[in-house]
């Protein structure tokens, strides 16, 4: 028996993993960046094989990690976590600096950044596990705390798309009782579900300028879930 709810108890942070160079660069939101050895300092990043960024990491052999702060803008999650660089230039209009290796490092809402050279690539099925040796690390802002996945899920009501290694199909979770008087509305951009029971507020009563807390889409991008 697998109780998928149990997996929510594993802690993660939230990052933008960047790669490429000054001419072409890209990045994606990741909650699976973690340190694997201290000497030398090596980290792993799990990257879906379909991510546009995967090609950049494979071809350049470098990637950056920007540690997002707790109040990072929902727009950043929409741009880097739900859209692909195959469709838009994600770095356009962003605050970007280029590291020692030429890799783009996204500075928006970031409190620390790191740069890695890939020393090993492990095929784990749907994802590549890029093992990177640390080349550079820098604190950008010591007045904020990092966003955790728990905070993202519980406070920001954020969700992760199917490309994320920790994606959980909601139909596999034990059903929670709720009264039919209340409705649910889903963001058509990122899949975030607004539940009137949990929010204790009817969706139509939300102000017109309310935006999706997960990806920053507008209220009109939500549709009612008919069960
Ligand atoms: C909260 C969150 C966590 C995510 N974690 C990962 C991850 O660890 N690995 C991954 O490959 N994709 C992850 N994703 C999905 C990618 O960010 C997403 O598929 C992105 O659009 C890929 O962009 P790209 O095609 O431009 O590289 C995550 C998304 C979100 C919103």
What does this structure look like?
The protein is mainly beta and 227 residues long. The chain folds into two domains: 12-154, Roll (Pnp Oxidase, Chain A); 178-224, Rubrerythrin, domain 2 (Single Sheet). 12% of the residues lie in helices and 33% in strands. The protein is built from four helices and twelve strands. It has helices at residues 52-60, 74-81, 149-154, 196-199; strands spanning 15-20, 25-30, 33-37, 42-48, 62-68, 96-98, 104-106, 110-123, 127-139, 184-187, 193-195, 222-224. The strands form three sheets. A seven-stranded antiparallel beta sheet has the order 2-1-5-8-9-4-3. A three-stranded antiparallel beta sheet has the order 11-10-12. The chain binds flavin mononucleotide. Flavin mononucleotide (FMN) is lined by residues 26, 28-32, 46-48, 51-53, 77, 81-86, 127, 152, 158, 160-161, 163-165.
Fold-level CATH name of the largest domain: Pnp Oxidase, Chain A
Widest β-sheet, arrangement of strands: 2-1-5-8-9-4-3
The span between the termini is 27 Å
Radius of gyration: 18 Å
Ranges with pLDDT <50 over ≥5 residues? none
Oligomer: single chain
Order of helices and strands: EEEEHEHEEEEHEEHE
Strand content: 25-35%
What CATH architecture of the largest domain do you see? Roll
Residue-averaged pLDDT: 93
**Domain module count:** 2
Quickly give the structural class: mainly beta
């Amino acid at each position: 028996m697998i109780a998928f709810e149990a997996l929510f108890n594993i802690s993660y942070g939230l990052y933008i993993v960047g790669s490429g160079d000054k001419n072409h660069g890209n990045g994606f939101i990741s909650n699976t960046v973690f340190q694997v050895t201290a000497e030398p300092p090596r980290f792993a990043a799990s990257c879906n094989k379909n991510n546009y960024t995967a090609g950049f990491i494979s071809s350049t052999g470098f990637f950056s990690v920007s540690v997002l702060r707790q109040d990072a803008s929902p727009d950043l999650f929409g741009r880097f976590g739900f859209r692909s660089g195959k469709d838009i230039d994600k770095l356009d209009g962003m605050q970007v600096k280029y590291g020692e290796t030429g890799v783009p490092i996204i500075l928006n809402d970031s409190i620390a950044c790191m740069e890695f050279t890939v020393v090993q690539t492990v095929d784990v099925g749907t994802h590549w596990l890029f093992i990177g040796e640390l080349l550079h690390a820098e604190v950008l802002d010591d007045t904020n705390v990092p966003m955790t996945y728990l905070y993202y899920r519980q406070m920001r009501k954020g969700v992760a798309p199917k490309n994320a290694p920790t994606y959980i199909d909601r139909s596999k979770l034990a059903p929670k009782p709720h009264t039919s008087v209340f409705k649910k509305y889903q963001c058509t951009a990122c899949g975030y579900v607004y539940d009137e029971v949990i929010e204790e507020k009817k969706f139509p009563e939300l102000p017109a300028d309310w935006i999706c807390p997960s990806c920053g889409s507008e209220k009109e991008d939500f549709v009612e879930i008919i069960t």
